[in-house]
Amino acid sequence: MDNPLYSVAQIRAIEQAAQSQLRPLGTSGPSPLMRRAGEAASTYALEVLGGLPTGRILVLAGPGNNGGDALEVAANLANLGANVDVVHLAGTAPSPETGHALARAQASRARFVSDVADCNGCCLVVDGLFGIGLARPLAGQARALVEWTHGMACPVLALDVPSGLDADTGSVVGPDGVAVRATHTITFLGDKPGLHTGDGCDHAGRVHVNRLGAHGLHTEAAHARLNAPALFAGCLAPRRNNSHKGTYGDVAVLGGARGMAGAGILAARAALYAGAGRVFVAAVDPGPGLDPLQPEIMFRDAAGFAFDGRTVVAGPGMGDSAGATHLLSKVIDGTGPLVVDADALNLCAASPDLAARLAAHGGEVVITPHPLEAARLLGVTAAVVQADRLENARELAERLDAVVVLKGAGSVIARPDGEVALNATGNPGLATGGTGDVLAGLVGTLLGQGWPAWEAALAATWLHGAAADRLVAGGAGPIGLTAGELPRAIRAELNALVADAALA
Asked: Record-annotated residues binding (6S)-NADPHX (predicted)?
């Protein structure tokens, strides 16, 4: 199933086309689009509440069209018999649609109040203060209202986008900005990337999309989408009986500097559990000769190891020694599939020559930076990367001619042509040391089994998060979840996907 994500500019174009399509022929009055948004949000609000409530519903309505949507909700719910309070921040020149919605709300049973102090004991807060057009941080009464919602124990339903959140980037608008922390968001006409990455993961809650009947108007292709198994389903094939370990590739993890052997082992275990035929740890420094939990993993001295013909995962625990740099240079100049992570990314960031050679690598390349590693590669700060995760991932993919997995809340998978996918699996349990090594090993094993780089990155990111979700559902976390628990859960998720694909 395709889950496209549209930029604000694209949504504006869709909205304009919908206004023309839905306005009655030969009329010049307001289009029914806002009315439809109000009806959709009212219906969803009752779903969230499980029916018409006996408690009070507080509607926060701003001065623009997002406020008009909220006023339509207030009128609809009040006319159904709900107890509705409205705090309205009036504007100077409302649109005809917003003016009509205000008149409807004023004619209903809804009670207009000047301050939330009069609204104790709410069972639902509807946020319609500001939508996708917000360009500056919230201030004054709007900011006070948003901060007040942070203390509410009841559900908070945001209309289109939580007020204060950038719908394109997922960042809270402005320095020292604030945004509504919704439990639910109903977003109109099309889904938005900012609801699924960065701050959006903490502010949007459960996202529900309603196109308001504007079907057939999404003519401009979306260049972002939500990651899902449908995007890599073509690679999910059952294993043939007539196969052997050579069928499923060799993965070599280049890492394991002194004191950091565990990183290479975690990557190797992920590669093993996700189906690599053979797995090696090519250690930069002498270390353990055996993984007692997984003796199938073979340990070699990286200096004399033959990397050619194998998929290489470079970086987990590799360090920054001259020897590590030489070995990284060697695999970059090779031609096989290559995953670059952790210390290997930092070495490339510190060496324009290495970075240029990486961009010219003769095989498939996937890099898996966290925001600080991405910032070093781009020559900016981590804050700059986080302020627009999609565009920075795109920039990095284009510069290095590689598929990029920018890790974090709502990981961004980007390829050099600008296409991106946002990953919705995973949870805060992944915020612990070693989970990135597991992801790198997982990408490597899929590449080693012949997956294209784009599909390998999509699948690995999805499986990595889904495994963490599986563990949390089983009681292992999110607090205290460890990277070492992930490989077995990844194996279970991968086999379930393959089984489902075989039945499709």
From this structure: 65-69, 131-137, 160, 263, 317, 370, 437
